[in-house]
TrEMBL record:
Name of the protein described by the UniProt record: D-inositol 3-phosphate glycosyltransferase
Highest taxon of the lineage: Bacteria
PANTHER family from the UniProt entry: SULFOQUINOVOSYL TRANSFERASE SQD2
Domain Glycosyltransferase subfamily 4-like N-terminal: 26-206
Annotated keywords: Glycosyltransferase, Transferase
SUPFAM superfamilies: UDP-Glycosyltransferase/glycogen phosphorylase
Domain Glycosyl transferase family span(s) in chain numbering: 215-370
UniProt-listed Pfam families: Glyco_transf_4, Glycos_transf_1
The keyword Transferase belongs to this UniProt entry's keyword annotation: yes
Molecular functions per Gene Ontology: glycosyltransferase activity
Length: 398
């Protein structure tokens, strides 16, 4: 990988963060970019975000308040990906010209791309030509994006092969490549010709959450995230439908997505209509309230490169029942802060939910404390320390 000049460690940095998804989008990659940017601003750095506009119109760079911090956001004209309920993208052939204009205006010390797809790709190519250090974080698997494709499988497979090849070419330009977990790093290294991928947690500010170790008056399962196919929320619904009626379990689903109507129909067909609440998108205060009143957090997803929602649940002292897939076992240690189950196995998920919901008070408190202990390593300040070191070309903190 190239390693251009190292920024002066004695002064604040000017950082361009390239995002193919950013606020007002609600997803893990966008949330990470927002928290990273706000944290960097809080440390005195000048942060510029490059992200899609919500319309096909370019607006002048303007200051926006994100996570309580002011930063300059460069919104680029974008179009809707019609098979998806919110995804927008910049025309690929316009990415480099837009990147050129941003880099001419900002003259950053470092560029941090959040994907190798379009905006990140354009910024990486232009920054590389100028000798600007590039750090890349991978949150994306092309297979997940193409879940929303209407193309034939043979065409989809060819696009995926091309996308991974293009990712390899883009990431070869960078000073460092990071991804949220060691397992995700191993996956990236085994998929394309890239080495030394650094696992860096998305990070979480535990002070934003209110852990409650007291017993719950009602049994409530909680899920937070996008309502999409790979999240397999239908598996959780089917498992809840098989639970002992005496447990009187309710299910709170927070988030929006293209599968909401299908999931509402499934809940009705399973006889859960009066026990399942689809909250849609909620405020931060309401989300904290839902975490605090829940008995257990359940996630059946098979596509998590980390899972900010799971970390939020842990910071709220919730036991977690999660699919034994991708990066979730990094957060959920079976028998400690909850349980893992075989992905897609409705009966096993129901059994593990029952284990949590029928645990005696001491056992429940032990799992809650294990969640709090386990999320401590994901403190956002450790994440910020690591990225500052990567930006400056310094040795990484322990």
């Amino acid at each position: 990988m190239t390693d251009p000049a190292t920024p002066d460690p004695r002064r604040p940095l000017t950082v361009v963060i390239g995002c193919d998804t950013f606020a007002p989008d609600i997803n893990g990659a966008a949330r990470f970019a927002e928290r990273l940017a706000a944290g960097l601003v809080g440390r005195g750095h000048d942060v510029h975000i490059v992200a899609p506009n919500q319309r096909y119109r370019r607006v002048r760079p303007r200051v926006e308040v994100v996570e309580g911090a002011e930063m300059t956001v460069h919104r680029l004209p974008s179009v809707r990906w019609l098979p998806h309920d919110w995804l927008r993208f910049v025309w690929p052939w316009r990415a480099k010209p837009y990147a050129r204009k941003v880099l001419d205006e900002v003259k950053p010390d470092v560029v941090h791309i959040q994907s190798h797809i379009i905006i990140g790709r354009g910024l990486a190519h232009e920054a590389n030509e100028r000798g600007i250090p590039i750090v890349a974080t991978n949150h994306v698997m092309p297979e997940n994006i193409l879940d929303f494709s209407v193309l034939p499988k043979r065409t989809t497979d060819a696009i995926i092969r091309w996308a991974w090849g293009d990712a390899e070419r883009t990431l070869s330009m960078t000073r460092a490549v990071t991804t949220p977990t060691r397992k995700a790093a191993d996956f990236l290294e085994s998929t394309i010709d890239v080495s030394g991928v650094i696992p860096v947690s998305c990070g979480i500010d535990e002070s934003n959450y209110t852990p409650d170790l007291e017993p719950r008056p009602q049994n409530r399962v909680l899920f937070v995230g996008r309502l999409t196919t790979e999240k397999q929320i239908d598996v959780v619904l089917r498992a809840i439908a098989t639970l002992d009626p005496a447990l009187q379990v309710g299910f709170d689903i927070v988030g929006g997505g293209d599968q909401r109507k299908n999931l509402e129909n499934l809940a009705r067909d399973l006889g859960l209509g009066d026990r399942v609440v689809f909250h849609g998108h909620v405020s931060d205060d309401e989300l904290r309230r839902l975490y605090s009143r829940a008995s257990v957090f359940a996630i059946a997803s098979i596509a998590e490169l980390q899972s900010i929602a799971t970390m939020e649940a842990m910071a709220s002292a919730l036991p977690v029942v999660a699919a034994d897939a991708v990066a979730l076992p990094h957060l959920v240690h079976d028998g400690e802060n909850g349980y893992l189950f075989t992905p897609g196995d409705v009966d096993e998920l129901a059994a593990r939910l029952t284990d949590v919901l029928t645990a005696d008070p001491d056992e429940r408190r032990r799992m809650q404390q294990a969640s709090l202990d386990g999320v401590a390593v994901h403190d956002i300040n450790r994440t910020l320390d690591t990225f500052e070191a990567l930006y400056r070309g310094e040795p990484l903190p322990d």
